[in-house]
Prior knowledge:
Blueprint: H1 4-13, H2 19-44, H3 48-61, H4 69-79, H5 82-85, H6 87-90, H7 99-115, H8 121-140, H9 144-152, H10 161-169
Amino acid sequence: MLCWVHDGRHYKKLRPLAPVNEKKLDAFRKRYWEYYGKLYVYKQHPSCESAGSLSAEFDDLFSTKTGYKELDDRISKTYAKKENLLKVLKYPCIPLHNNGAENGARVQKRREDVSLQTKTDPGTKAKDTMMSIVQTCKKLGVNAYQFIHDRVSRKFEFPTPGTLIRKRAACKEFP
């Protein structure tokens, strides 16, 4: 699947010179994000009827011709990605965007900005391991402190992260 937020950024990069084109871009971007909102609602309450109407609405939205060449080209490029952008209609449990994964990767960079770097290779490995555990727990909705305590105390009451990930990934096809 593709990320709607990343696709939407391409429209934000357009810089129309004529005010009329700026209005066309603003109007299209408004429709774009309204459609995204409908997909978000669909994820909460998926149905065959909704999936069909959202697919048809995608066709209508991304076959729009505005007369602003750069915008029309961008719309065509998005339309070509229909199958990957609309995977959510078949698999409602998948996310509409991948910003969560990006934000997880940024944690490491923010940490480096604050504390510069570690002094030794074992220190780097320990820091990376802890950050990985904490971020994975955060994404899985598990209290990282309790998880680490569970492992250090050898109680093993929490399922492994791999088990939780596989459980989440067992997304069933819809409809």
